[in-house]
């Protein structure tokens, strides 16, 4: 009864406030407008190009499958980064964490080929997550114990991680019988089980479950509360007794673990072996996707699908209209800029 | 500032008619009429969120009203930006001074003035400012860099800035909040002088005694509406308070039976506490202080004499170079800096209210939040502490200053901690809220809490405290029994003028300088 008076007040909202969530949509429209100009300049009819892009990404079950497969690693990484960024922990090292996860998981697959899938797959996933966790933890220790700038050390550890995978694929884990500098193909038991007879695998399912878990973590747990408090205002969080260093490390380790998990899922399901090149820059794409998704798990899901659809669609655009596939990258960048700018403008409203 | 006196006496300097301004979820001003005559000092009174600042922001061009008209000396005006208002002769001295510390006074005044190449005629600018300063008794050297100036001097720079722009309507937003009693007296003299020369002065304040001492007329706002305008000569503090709050408020020092505490041990004890600030300069020196259960000890002093450092030392955010702080029991802390220490603006009222207690049952269980329980508690606190918010889910950053402060006070006090450190707990609060906070502190005291109250408001200290320690340049220069305290004596101590007194506590602290 008493709560009603408070609740009824909340209904009174200013119309402009309600339109605020639409600011990203406006940003997307502006981004599309700019890319139309670019498409027209490269000699294509923008409308036709967009249609081609769309059907290339969602036009049939084959296209949708392709888009979802591409979505999976980006989504898993971006969810982790969204959690980290929410705590204002600027982990730029997902690419490296992804590689170390792939390396550890791949090493398990190559070392224990006789294990049954029911054991091998969980073991690989754990190893992958652990790899990412350790790699991000290394950056965290450098940051918290030695005061190294977190952005710098996560960024630099990317290159070490990537090069370690290249080294492993060329030297210790190389298939002695093969021509190429890559490991032997994983045994069937080391490949993620597929869903029915589609090419989709349980990694896709896992990514979707992680969307829900990330949401629960951020808004329904005390850990998420602390992470958000640390991110929103460090000085206050510290003052009310939150252990900020520990929170920062936790956020970093969560994002590292998820990046490592994405790595092992990709090598298990897509590459099926360790190769010198096992990423399309997912770790960096994940940063953009996390930001585009406004650090909200559902937003991140939408952004991840959008980004992978752009990449998949751009390939068919290349085939049908001879427009370079790089247009996807341009569109992605414009979208992020448009959305972030829209958000910034929406937040600039004066308050009472 | 050349008036044709015949006109300025006939037509009001400011005539705001039917001003309405809406904000998200709030009606900030509703059909407000506001008239100020030239040469008049007119107080604008009202609680936090009553719409005073909004009304003045409309007058000085920061907002455009949704409805209503503004007439200045019989001319209808419309301001789209502050520059329009300045051009029409309306200037405002804000609570937070808008000065560049590295610049000189003259540079700050020249800043933002269009069409004047100040570098070319720096000398004539200096001369002009010197003349103005002397004419109104401001005592400002235009060549002094602002960072060297005291808070009171900076305020006079703002006034000088407005005068140089030839305003004939001067708005001051709570100008005395940062001043010592002596500086306040000086400011009043200046303002009376300005008014005598024809300037219309609008004085926004919470402090009724100043309004009564200084102003000619008062307009009172409540909930965005004008309650009335009265001649100061015809009213007293109680009447004004009732107009403001809509009910009777009592801010006199309540009688109380002092509980005998001699046999009890202090809950908070500072022993020879010293600490250093920037450039390793000592900011606290040899502080000795005990706070016993069931008493309020006040730290009086002008802002910037070590209050912030003392606060930080007690909560453990500042390391001591010497001495020890003992605390017996948990600490509630109402921070002086509510923006960087008190609230997370983007968090909801609920989340801010439970910031300290989120790990406790029933608000969470096994690491999972229980939103229903959180909201239930938040609604209870919002109602108990009279926090005005559209909902408990509103981000606390959108609340008015007073309501934000109430959120902090609710969070810190509702758990009944044995030791309470309250730093500037009513800064920026209206009388109604202030009375409420005071009542809360007194209730906690009666329940046996040991309270240390750091406040630059002498009235507050005198009303609440049992003992008063005066902090000057990092030292306690006097420890006085509040019941027998004398305001003039306190004011002198706050200004660093340690006098010979009969107070036995003073004898050891007496310094050589006597004035």
Topology:
The complex is a heterodimer of chains A (352) and B (515).
Chain A (H helix, E strand, L loop, with lengths): L1 H10 L3 H5 L3 H19 L4 H13 L2 H26 L7 H18 L5 H30 L3 H21 L31 H19 L1 H11 L1 H6 L4 H28 L10 H11 L4 H25 L5 H20 L6
Helix pairs in contact in A: 3-15, 4-5, 4-14, 5-9, 5-10, 5-12, 5-13, 5-14, 6-7, 6-8, 6-12, 6-13, 7-8, 7-12, 9-10, 9-14, 10-12, 13-14, 13-15, 14-15
Chain B lengths: L4 H6 L3 E10 L2 E11 L4 E6 L5 H8 L7 E6 L2 E3 L4 H6 L2 E4 L11 H6 L11 H14 L15 H14 L4 E5 L7 H16 L3 E5 L3 H7 L2 E6 L2 E7 L5 H9 L22 E9 L5 E10 L3 E6 L6 H9 L6 E6 L3 E4 L3 H5 L6 H5 L10 E2 L2 E2 L1 H14 L16 H13 L5 E5 L7 H16 L3 E5 L3 H7 L2 E6 L2 E7 L5 H8 L9 H4 L8
Helix pairs in contact in B: 14-15
Structural account:
- The complex is a heterodimer of chains A (352) and B (515).
- Chain A is mostly helical and 352 residues long.
- In chain A, 74% of the residues lie in helices and 0% in strands.
- Chain A is built from 15 helices and no strands.
- In chain A, helix 4 (46-58) crosses helix 14 (297-321).
- The model of chain A is unreliable at 1-15 (pLDDT under 50).
- Chain B is α/β, with parallel strands linked by helices and 515 residues long.
- Among the domains of chain B are: 5-245, P-loop containing nucleotide triphosphate hydrolases (Rossmann fold, 3-Layer(aba) Sandwich); 339-448, Rossmann fold (3-Layer(aba) Sandwich).
- Chain B has helices at 5-10, 52-59, 82-87, 105-110, 122-135, 151-164, 181-196, 208-214, 237-245, 307-315, 338-342, 349-353, 371-384, 401-413, 431-446, 458-464, 487-494, 504-507; strands spanning 14-23, 26-36, 41-46, 67-72, 75-77, 90-93, 169-173, 200-204, 217-222, 225-231, 268-276, 282-291, 295-300, 322-327, 331-334, 364-365, 368-369, 419-423, 450-454, 467-472, 475-481.
- Chain B has a 6-stranded mixed β-sheet, sandwiched between helices.
- In chain B, a hairpin with a 2-residue loop joins strand 9 (217-222) and strand 10 (225-231).
- In chain B, helix 14 (401-413) runs parallel beside helix 15.
- The radius of gyration of chain B is 24 Å and the shape is globular.
- The chains are: A mainly alpha (352), B alpha/beta (515).
């Amino acid at each position: 009864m008493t709560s009603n008076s408070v609740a009824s007040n909340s209904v009174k909202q200013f119309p402009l406030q309600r339109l605020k969530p639409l600011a990203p949509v406006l940003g997307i429209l502006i981004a599309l407008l700019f890319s139309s100009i670019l498409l027209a300049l490269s000699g294509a009819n923008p409308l036709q190009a967009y249609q081609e892009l769309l059907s290339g990404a969602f036009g049939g079950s084959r296209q949708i499958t392709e888009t979802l497969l591409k979505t999976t690693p980006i989504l898993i990484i971006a969810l982790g980064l969204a959690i980290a960024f929410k705590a204002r922990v600027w982990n730029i090292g997902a690419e490296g964490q992804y590689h170390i996860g792939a390396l550890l998981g791949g090493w398990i697959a190559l070392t224990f080929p006789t294990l049954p899938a029911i054991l091998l797959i969980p073991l690989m996933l754990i190893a992958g997550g652990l790899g990412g966790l350790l790699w991000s933890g290394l950056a965290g220790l450098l940051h918290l114990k030695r005061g190294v700038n977190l952005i710098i050390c996560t960024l630099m550890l990317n290159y070490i991680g990537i090069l370690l995978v290249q080294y492993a694929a060329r030297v210790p884990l190389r298939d002695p019988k093969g021509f190429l500098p890559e490991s032997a193909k994983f045994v069937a038991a080391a490949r993620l089980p597929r869903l029915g007879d589609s090419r989709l695998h349980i990694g896709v399912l896992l990514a979707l479950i992680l969307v829900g878990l990330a949401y629960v973590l951020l808004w329904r747990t005390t850990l998420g509360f602390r992470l958000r408090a640390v991110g929103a205002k460090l000085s206050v969080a510290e003052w009310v007794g939150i252990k900020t260093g520990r929170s920062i490390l936790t956020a970093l380790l969560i994002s590292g673990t998820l990046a490592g998990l994405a790595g092992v899922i990709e090598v298990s399901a897509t590459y099926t072996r360790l190769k010198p090149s096992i990423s399309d820059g997912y770790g960096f794409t994940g940063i953009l996707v996390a930001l585009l998704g406004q650090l909200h798990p559902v937003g991140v899901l939408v952004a991840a699908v959008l980004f992978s659809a752009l990449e998949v669609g751009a390939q068919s655009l290349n085939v049908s209209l001879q427009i370079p596939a790089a247009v996807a990258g341009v569109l992605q960048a414009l979208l992020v800029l448009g959305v972030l700018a829209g958000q910034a403008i929406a937040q600039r409203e004066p308050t009472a | 500032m050349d008036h044709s006196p015949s006109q300025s006496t006939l037509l009001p300097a400011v005539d705001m008619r039917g001003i309405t301004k809406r904000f998200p979820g709030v009606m900030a001003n509703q059909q407000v009429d506001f008239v100020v005559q030239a040469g008049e000092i007119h107080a604008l009174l009202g609680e936090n969120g009553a719409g005073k600042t909004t009304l003045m922001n409309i007058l000085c061009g920061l907002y455009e009203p949704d409805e209503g008209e503004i007439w200045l000396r019989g001319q209808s005006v419309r301001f789209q930006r502050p520059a329009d208002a300045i051009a029409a002769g309306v200037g405002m001295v804000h609570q937070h001074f808008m000065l560049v510390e590295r610049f000189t006074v003259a540079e700050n005044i020249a800043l933002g003035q269009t069409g004047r190449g100040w570098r070319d005629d720096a000398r004539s600018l200096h001369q002009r400012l010197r003349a103005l300063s002397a004419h109104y008794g401001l005592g400002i050297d235009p060549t002094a860099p602002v960072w060297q100036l005291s808070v009171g001097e900076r305020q006079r720079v703002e006034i000088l800035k407005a005068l140089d722009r030839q305003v004939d309507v001067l708005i001051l937003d709570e100008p005395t909040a940062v001043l010592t009693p002596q500086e306040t007296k000086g400011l009043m003299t200046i303002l009376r002088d300005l008014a005598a020369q024809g300037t219309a002065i609008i004085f926004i304040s919470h402090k009724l005694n100043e309004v009564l001492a200084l102003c000619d007329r008062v307009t009172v706002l409540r909930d965005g509406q004008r309650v009335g305008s009265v001649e100061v000569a015809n009213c007293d503090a109680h009447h004004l308070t009732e107009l403001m709050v809509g009910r009777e408020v009592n801010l006199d020092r309540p009688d109380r039976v002092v509980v005998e505490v001699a046999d009890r041990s202090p809950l908070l004890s500072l022993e020879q506490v010293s600490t250093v600030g920037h450039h390793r300069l000592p900011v606290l020196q040899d502080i000795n202080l005990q706070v016993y259960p069931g008493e309020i000890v006040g730290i009086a002093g002008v802002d910037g004499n070590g209050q912030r450092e003392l606060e930080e030392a007690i909560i453990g955010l500042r390391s001591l170079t010497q001495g020890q702080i003992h605390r017996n029991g948990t600490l509630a802390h109402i921070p002086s800096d509510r923006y960087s220490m008190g609230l997370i603006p983007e968090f909801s009222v609920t989340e801010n209210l439970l910031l300290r207690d989120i790990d406790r049952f029933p608000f969470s269980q096994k690491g999972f939040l229980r939103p229903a329980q959180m909201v239930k508690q938040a609604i209870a606190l919002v109602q108990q502490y009279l926090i005005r918010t559209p909902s408990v889910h509103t981000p606390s950053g959108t609340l008015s200053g007073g309501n934000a402060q109430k959120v902090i006070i609710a969070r810190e006090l509702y758990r009944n901690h044995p030791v309470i450190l309250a730093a500037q707990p009513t800064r920026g609060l209206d009388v109604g809220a202030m009375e409420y906070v005071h009542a809360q502190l007194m209730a906690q005291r009666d329940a046996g809490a040991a309270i240390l109250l750091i406040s630059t408001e002498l009235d507050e200290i005198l009303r609440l405290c049992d003992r008063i320690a005066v902090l000057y340049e990092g030292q306690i220069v006097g420890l006085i029994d509040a019941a027998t305290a004398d305001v003039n004596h306190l004011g002198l101590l706050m200004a660093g003028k340690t006098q010979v007194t009969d107070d036995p506590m003073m004898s050891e602290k007496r310094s050589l300088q006597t004035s």
